[in-house]
Amino acid sequence: MGTQKVSNPFERATAFFLFGSLQQFYFDGNQRTSRAMMNGVLMTQGLDAVSIPAVRATEFNSRMIDFYTSLDATEMMAFVFDCILKFRRSVGLILGFPPSGTYQTSSTSVSATR
To answer: What is the block-wise mean pLDDT of the chain (114 residues), using blocks of 10 residues?
Structure first.
């Protein structure tokens, strides 16, 4: 099986996070380490780092369990993107420029509005 390059930096970074979390490379701290690596990929591309708000921890954990059992990253990618948008909206409201609410992946359109 050959390797496939992911050109979209958000997809590449999020896939890195999910793969690292799933594979459990370390005894402890796999999700934290993988999130740090995801943010490193995003920031090297000039994109915002991702922070999962504490108030969404239960939703995050539930979606991660769904990802672990289904191996379908769609919902987790949408969740991570939604976290980015909500953060940018809160900053945008302060600065006066809220961002768009839709993100187009290479295979699907993810809308972060609810």
So the answer is: 70 90 82 90 88 93 95 92 81 53 46 36
